[in-house]
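Re: the 397-residue chain
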Amino acid sequence: MKDRSSCTPPSNPWQAKRDIIKMNLLKKIIWLNLGTLAILLSVQGCKKDDTAELPSVITDEVTDITENSAKGGGNLTSDGGANITSGGLVWSENKYPTIHQNEGITDDGTGRGQFESDITELSPRTSYYVRAYATNSEGTAYGNMVEFTTNSLAIPGSGVTDIDGNEYNTVIIGNQEWMAENLRTTKYADGTEIPFGLSDSEWENTTEGAYSVYPHENVEGIYSEEQMVNAYGKLYNWYAVDDERGLCPAGWHVSTEDDWNELLEYLEEEHGIPNTNTYGGAANVLKAARQIDHPWDGNHATYEHPRWDNLTFLYYTPYGTDDFGFSAFPAGSRSEVGSYGYGHIGSVGRWWTSTLDQDNWNESTIYVAIRYNRAHVEINRYLKRPGYSVRCIRNEE
């Protein structure tokens, strides 16, 4: 028989139940607090550092500028309290380039302090805007904007003086040295006067050399014959070009069709500039960079003569960039019947060559045309009687 005296019943059975309930509740509270702490720690680990801010960077001046490259750099003065993930330079022909909108970008590392960058794949005689940048967890900051302009491809020649004492700038393009201005002489190289002042009828019927000056009365903004000649040169018929006494200074000759073809081949083969009617065609780089509404600043956008007219052609305007210093201007022409209405100043330049048209029994000649609304150089054939401009080229030694 069991000894009941050895079993001691609890003094208060309800107290025991309450103790058990308290113990279970305490366990739940502990586990709940541990979970909350884990969540808080996790959130804190993903949260941005409240003390971080955008970095600070300064853009250096651009140096060692060439026709297609330059050197730049910057100084990362503060990382903003967060790690730098990228930094370098951005540049564009438009102001305020960014890492998303630019024509060139470098990534020069993540360290603080000074850095240098190569600015490459630029176009000649073009203005660019460059900014340093640096990126951290807060975003991308930019330095001050610096503007620079690339160099021209032009190589100045030694110059030349004609029989009248007119001095001309010259330019070397490839293996050729060209006059960078239209001819203005009133005499052949032996000092003989070239006939001038022919009436329309005389101009139409002469087979002798003659020259003319486009009437300044027909051109707004030009007020004298001297001003006209200084701006655009003189207009010669082909008989003056072909005269054995010589139209150009000693040691120089009127350009030939072969001379022009050599020039165009050089532009394409050495510089990738095709003679096509597209943006950046050969005519664009030979035209003087003076035009109505030209996109460049300074004296490039002008109504003052000499200059090119403006016309939006299709989706672009073929502005002159004069990359090589050839400085072609549209001098107009005097037609074969003597009038001046055929090709007015500002819209087209025509230059004689000394080359006869072999396909037309030498009855016509070859000339070159550059138009304000085209990007290619035209090589055409026509009669000998019109008055066109002349560019001389140095004889090969």
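Confidence is low (pLDDT under 50) at residues 1-10, 40-48.
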